[in-house]
Amino acid sequence: MITIPTDISAEKPVGAPFIIDSCPFRPGEQFDYAVLSLDDDKVLDWPMVYILANDKAAYVGQTNSVATRMNQHGANEEKSEFTTANVIFNEEFNTSVITDYEHRLIGYMHADGRYVLTNKNDGMTDSNYFSKESYAKMFEELWDDLRKLELADHTIAQIEESEVFKYSPFKSLNADQRVALDKIYSEIERGLESSEPIVVEGMPGTGKTILAIYLLKLLKDDPRYSCLNVRIVEPVTSLRNTLRKALKRVSGLSPDDVISPSDLVKPSFGYRPGEKKCFDVVLVDEAHKLKQRVNLGTQYKNYDDANRKLGLPQQATQLDWVIDQAKLPIFFYDPLQSIGPSCIASSVWTNALGESARFPIRLDCQMRVKGGDSYLRYVKDILEGTCSGYQDFEGYDLVLHEDPLDFAQCFERDYQAHNLTRMVAGYAWKWVSKKDKAAFDIELDGVSLRWNCTYDNWVGRGVDDSRIAHEVGCIHSIQGYDLSYAYVLIGNDLSFDEDAGKPVSNKASYFDRNGYATATKQELDRFIKNIYYVLLTRGILGTHVYVLDPSLREYLKRYFPTR
Fold first, then answer.
1. Which of 528, 461, 477 is nearest to 519 (CA)?
2. Which helix (H) or strand (E) holds 515?
3. CATH number for position 414
4. Distance from C-alpha of 465 to C-alpha of 156, rounded to nearest angstrom
5. How far apart are CA 248 and CA 254, in angstroms?
6. Does residue 1 lie in a domain region?
7. How many helices and strands (H and E) does the chain possess?
8. Are strands 472-473 and 422-425 parallel, antiparallel or unpaired?
9. 433 and 526 fall within a common domain
């Protein structure tokens, strides 16, 4: 037996080593804890984390008595597939720490991909506790130990920049998200037949997509609701493919759980011709991207076919489709991310949803940008010309570049350190490379760039393809995604009006035809500002900006640090 001292006098953890003890797991038999090298008293009564595993699947848990918990699992038929128990001990563990570590291990192991995790996600709430930051640092050491034992493959840095991790159903919810979840679940428990539509509203980075994915997993795992037809409707094609990939390795979920608006009229997903309310719960992510019958390009026929199948008038919106087919529709919405005439107008939202739209569930805690909620408000006020003065955001890398070459060089530096660093831009340059693959779309004093070669998971594909990572993403390739650093090019579609004292749009330099056709001057102004609001709020660690218009650049110098 290993005798481990447990008299820890330090107020904060000193970084005691981890002991990962493995032994056979034999379902149906009494747990033989004598094979473990840990002292018996530690096995019987000490907070620990453990991993049950076989060649393909794993289950992560925590307990104050390994012996008792293993016997419980041994009698549980659901755990009969596992062959090995990996017990993780640290003399500085306590109940708060092991709860945190359990959640961390579930999230990282799922994204790592070595195992399919069989855990449920109920109760995964992000809670604070004494010396949490110190224990978070210790967790990195634990993860390195797990990799050495071949219980994990990828580094934490690699995992955190993966799309599977970012859109995992195993994320711990913050207090805002937990309150929203409880309200939604209460509505479900009241009964779907009597339920009213729900709108969850929040700024970028408040965790709308994460909450939708979490809720999907929770409902699928809940025996009361596991038989329901629950889907996530994702209007953004690239993000839809990303979510499908993220759910591929989640026990109990399927890529088919994520569908497009038009899939609401497909029998393969549950639609029954001539019937209403064929879906029980429909979670609409990026609901501000639902379309109305305006500027649809080549999509008019499919759009009209869907309305015809649903028995709706030709001018019905995709919002109408959801209301028609869902017993309980739940919309995750941000009005400031409406970026074109095809997006449903706010007045249409209010008319269709009434009280649900006027009194949404609010998500206010911003989790993406290290600049916090104040940075998002700062960007909004700058674009509207209502900013009261300069603000500093400690720990957030906000830079306005005067030289495009310096902009490009700093991009390369951050890209080498953080693979999810990308350049993005407003649609202020013609897309000549669509027809001429050798041509460059954006020329900036010695810096030649091309637009994104694909919409389909452009951000994720750039992780493995440096060529794609060095392209410039348009709004349609980036909306809904997080970046480590966002390098934002503001073109001549936005300038500064000295008389009005605020930024204004310039239709002549805006080349998204579907974005400006039918739009009034006022609408176009709002759409272009919303586009740049989205682009300027993608970066987790920082935002770097280069501006073409000299007057706008001078205006931004009042608010952005300059180099």
1. 528
2. helix 513-516
3. 3.40.50
4. 20
5. 6
6. no
7. 21, 20
8. parallel
9. yes
The whole-angstrom separation of Cα 309 and Cα 272 is 10
Domains: count for the chain: 3
The letter for the amino acid at 241 is N
Q: Which two tokens stand for residue 246?
A: 């993220």
Q: Are residues 286 and 422 in the same domain?
A: no
- Model confidence pLDDT, tens digit, residues 161-209: 888 898 999 988 988 999 999 999 999 999 998 889 999 999 888 999 9
Here the tokens at position 117 are: 């995790």
pLDDT in the model for residue 215 = 96
In a domain, residue 301? The reply is yes
Query: Among candidates 419, 401, 427, which has minimal Cα distance to 512?
Result: 427
13 lies in some domain:
no
- The values of phi and psi at residue 143, to 5°, are -65, -40
Asked if 137 and 214 sit in the same domain, the reply is no
Concatenated DSSP letters for 201-229? EE-TTS-HHHHHHHHHHHHHH-TTTTTS-
Between 409 and 166, where is the model more confident? 409
- Residue 403 is which amino acid? D
Kindly give, in sequence order, each residue whose CB lies less than 8 Å from that of residue 404, ignoring residues fewer than 6 positions away.
444, 445, 446, 447, 546
Give the DSSP per-residue string, 237-280: HHHHHHHHHHHTTBTT--GGGEE-GGGGG-GGGT--TT-S--EE
Task: Name the band, by pLDDT with cuts 50, 70 and 90, for residue 532.
Answer: very high
pLDDT at 3: 57
Q: For the chain, give the number of residues.
A: 563
Domain boundary among 301, 330, 363: 363
Maximum C-alpha span of the chain? 81
Euclidean distance between CA atoms 561 and 392, whole angstroms: 9
Sign of the four-CA dihedral 406, 412, 413, 419: positive
Residue showing tokens 């805002």: 176
The pLDDT value given to residue 10: 46
Domain closes at, from 363, 390, 408: 363
Is residue 349 domain-shared with residue 388, that is, in the same domain? Answer: no
Kindly state the helix (H) or strand (E) to which residue 488 belongs, with its residue range. Answer: strand 483-490
Distance CA 332, CA 199 (A): 6
Q: Is the pLDDT of residue 498 over 60?
A: yes
Q: At what angle do helices 346-353 and 318-325 cross, to 10 degrees?
A: 20
CB distance 400 to 213 below 8 Å: no
Parent domain of 488: 372-556
Looking at the structure, tell me whether residues 62 and 200 fall in a common domain.
no
**Residue 499 included in any domain:** yes
| DSSP code of residue 16 | P
For residue 228, the cross-strand partners are none
**In the block, residue with structure tokens 């493959």:** 153
- CB of 475 closer than 8 Å to CB of 426: yes
Q: Which amino acid is at 347?
A: S
pLDDT over 80 (residue 438): yes
Q: What integer pLDDT is reported at residue 271 of this predicted model?
A: 96
